[in-house]
């Protein structure tokens, strides 16, 4: 392997390496400027934040400097993406393209342990089959056959395995049941092999969830050498960095549900049966644990519908329901004691650790007084979004007890900014009114160079932003009637080919049902099928219209005429009654800030930029954006939104929409 990679100028300049590639080449000044800024940050051990508009080619602008730095310094770089889809695009598309120009590169792709098969579990289940029904038996045969040929052990290769497969959770490589170096299959373990590839690599491509899960594990383990899966690295580059606060909050928090108790009980039963171990009292301890867990969760405060609610009166709750809580702790202690009596079964150590972790998390959730933590309860349909999308569904609810940091900035200072010599944040949506103040404050990023790279697209020519006249306030009962009329008219002009994006399931369902009788186009509703299947069907169906909520506002790429219109029902403000948002607003007020302008408006601006960003994905795309919320023009804060958006051509005249498509 050649140790010399081309300089940035040799690669990006007119007539350079990139110009001679198979790509349709056009020199992009912003791409070159970003690449130089990334290289400077890495070489000088500095942090950097870059907003790079869609179409600037930001992926190559950080990949080449990262590879050059790692090759020259012999220090690893981690690239973390917002989604697995983007992660796969980097590894299976962008890296092979670079290799076609530069030769072989030392790059590894890593996902969380639950994505990989555990050979030890698979063989144990083969020797002592404990499978539920014909479906699991057939799935086991398919997995066992695949295991003999796969080189990665990555579940993504198993296209025939349903997403909801209960069998996979019995076979995956999660840490809790891992035997480590004592495992008979340690050398052939896919996690072991993945780690070895990572240690030998210059660049490791992960996703934010894996990165922060690993960071959290290492923080809890207080520097234990085998903690986590990611090896040491000098620098980390976050693509889609606007998601970092939410992801970090989730992994630095604590979550507990009946599901964790059920999984611990199930895994214990499976292990002891597979090893043919009989310990008097274990079965009784398992039954007691499951029963006490259900009793405890049933006593938690609850609302009449799914959703989140604050859990503020924990001390009062314990006064009334202390017996249920103490009984659950006692059941955990008894369960641990029974496991302690199991001898000569190495896997039991993992079960005992899980039991201790659950006990520690339960105590934290119920007894800890931490001013930087908000405690809350979430109840959601067990069937998830697909059940939630059905108006007539009344599914059973899954209850989760949660603790979330109110402010993650100090945690990130200790675990991120001070740990890595260089941290680089990039996304198409990081600024509010052309400034990084919001993202810096929320993430504790005090010292960093800033760069804004304008998009390569000509938004003034490619996109028209239509703000219809005469719309009532979204909270007005007449809003939906007017929204229906404006949506129908625009969809007629665009011949469908649209995304309709909403801030709530209720609004989404209501407008979808109205449109079913108003327009002749194929309509797809989030929840009718998995997200990827819906997108594939949308791309393949002429004149289709897709109705979606938050998961369709970002990470979706549909190029060409198939998506020619994006309609947003209202400004995407977070629900102020959400426990985490509420706690963060109160914290800002307590320090003399203005929560609406310091938190809610900036978050909504970034979300709106993401939603509108679905429309123009290439230099040839054209289309119309419609925002049905009149507050962007009537309220003082509307100016912040308009000044933060790309330079779309603006109109309130439907005739201009007609002319745009004529």
UniProtKB/TrEMBL annotation:
Query: Which keywords appear in this protein's UniProt record, sorted alphabetically?
Result: ATP-binding, Helicase, Hydrolase, Nucleotide-binding
UniProt catalytic activity: ATP + H2O = ADP + phosphate + H(+)
Classification via InterPro entries: ATP-dep_Helicase_C, DEAD/DEAH_box_helicase_dom, DinG/Rad3-like, Helic_SF1/SF2_ATP-bd_DinG/Rad3, Helicase_ATP-bd, P-loop_NTPase
Any idea which GO molecular function terms this record carries? 5'-3' DNA helicase activity; ATP binding; hydrolase activity, acting on acid anhydrides, in phosphorus-containing anhydrides; nucleic acid binding
Q: Which PROSITE patterns match?
A: HELICASE_ATP_BIND_2
**Which cofactors, if any, are listed as required?**
[4Fe-4S] cluster
* EC number(s) reported in the record: 5.6.2.3
All copies of domain Helicase ATP-binding, residue ranges: 17-293
**Which biological processes are named by the entry's GO terms?**
DNA repair
The source's domain of life comes to Bacteria
Q: Does the keyword Membrane apply?
A: no
The record's family statement is: Belongs to the helicase family. DinG subfamily.
Q: What is this protein's record name?
A: DNA 5'-3' helicase
> Species name for this entry?
Terriglobus albidus
Lineage of the organism: Bacteria, Pseudomonadati, Acidobacteriota, Terriglobia, Terriglobales
């Amino acid at each position: 392997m050649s140790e010399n990679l081309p300089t940035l100028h040799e690669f990006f300049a007119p007539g350079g390496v990139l110009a001679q590639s198979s790509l349709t080449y056009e020199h992009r000044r912003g791409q070159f400027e970003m690449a130089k800024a990334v290289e400077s940050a890495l070489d000088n051990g500095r942090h950097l934040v870059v907003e790079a508009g869609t179409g600037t080619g930001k992926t190559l602008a950080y990949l080449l400097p990262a590879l050059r730095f790692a090759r020259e310094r012999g220090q690893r770089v981690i690239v973390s993406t917002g989604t697995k889809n983007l992660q796969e695009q980097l590894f299976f598309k962008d890296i092979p393209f670079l290799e076609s120009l530069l030769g072989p590169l030392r790059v590894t792709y890593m996902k969380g342990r639950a994505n990989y098969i555990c050979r030890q579990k698979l063989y144990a289940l083969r020797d002592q089959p404990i499978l539920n029904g014909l479906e699991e038996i057939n799935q086991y045969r398919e997995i066992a056959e695949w295991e003999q040929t796969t080189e990665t052990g990555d579940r993504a290769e198993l296209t025939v395995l349903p997403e909801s497969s209960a069998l996979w959770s019995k076979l995956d490589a999660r840490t809790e049941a891992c035997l480590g170096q004592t495992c008979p299959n340690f050398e052939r373990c896919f996690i072991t092999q993945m780690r070895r590839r990572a240690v030998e690599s210059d660049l490791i491509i992960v996703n934010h969830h894996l990165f922060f899960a690993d960071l959290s594990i290492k923080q809890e383990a207080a520097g234990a050498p085998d903690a986590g899966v990611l090896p040491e690295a000098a620098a980390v580059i976050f693509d889609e960095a606007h998601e970092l606060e939410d992801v970090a909050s989730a992994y630095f928090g604590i979550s507990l549900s009946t599901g964790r108790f059920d999984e611990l009980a199930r895994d214990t039963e499976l292990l002891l049966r597979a090893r043919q171990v009989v310990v008097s009292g274990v079965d009784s301890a398992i039954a007691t644990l499951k029963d006490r867990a259900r009793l405890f969760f049933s006593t938690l405060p609850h609302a009449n519908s799914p959703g989140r609610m604050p859990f503020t009166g924990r001390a009062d709750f314990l006064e009334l329901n202390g017996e249920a809580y103490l009984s659950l702790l006692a059941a955990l202690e008894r369960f641990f004691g029974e496991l302690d009596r199991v001898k000569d079964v190495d896997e039991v150590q993992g079960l005992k650790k899980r039991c201790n972790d659950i006990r520690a998390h339960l105590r934290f959730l119920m007894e800890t007084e931490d001013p930087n933590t908000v405690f809350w309860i979430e109840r959601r349909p067990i069937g998830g979004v697909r059940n939630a999308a059905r108006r007539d569904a009344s599914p059973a609810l899954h209850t989760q007890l949660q603790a979330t940091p109110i402010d993650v900035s100090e945690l990130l200072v200790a675990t991120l900014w001070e740990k890595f010599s260089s941290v680089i944040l990039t996304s198409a949506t990081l600024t509010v009114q052309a400034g990084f103040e919001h993202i810096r404050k929320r993430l504790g990023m005090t010292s960093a160079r800033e760069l804004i790279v304008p998009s390569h697209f000509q938004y003034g020519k490619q996109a028209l932003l239509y703000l219809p006249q005469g719309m009532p306030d979204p909270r007005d009962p007449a809003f939906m009637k007017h929204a229906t009329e404006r949506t129908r008219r625009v969809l007629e002009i665009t011949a469908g080919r649209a995304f309709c994006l909403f801030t709530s399931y209720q609004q989404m369902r209501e407008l979808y049902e109205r449109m079913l009788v108003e327009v002749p186009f194929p309509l797809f509703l989030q929840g009718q099928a998995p997200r990827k299947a819906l997108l594939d069907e949308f791309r393949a169906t002429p004149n289709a219209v897709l109705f979606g909520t938050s998961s369709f506002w970002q990470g979706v790429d549909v190029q060409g005429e198939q998506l020619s219109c994006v309609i947003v029902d209202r400004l995407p403000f977070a629900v102020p009654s959400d426990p985490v948002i509420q706690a963060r607003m109160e914290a800002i007020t307590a320090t003399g800030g203005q929560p609406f302008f310091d938190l809610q408006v900036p978050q909504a601006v970034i979300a709106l930029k993401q939603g509108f960003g679905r429309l123009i994905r290439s230099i040839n795309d054209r289309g119309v954006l419609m925002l049905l919320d009149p507050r962007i023009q009537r309220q003082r804060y509307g100016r912040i939104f308009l000044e933060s958006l790309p330079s779309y051509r603006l109109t309130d005249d439907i005739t201009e929409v007609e002319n745009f498509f004529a």
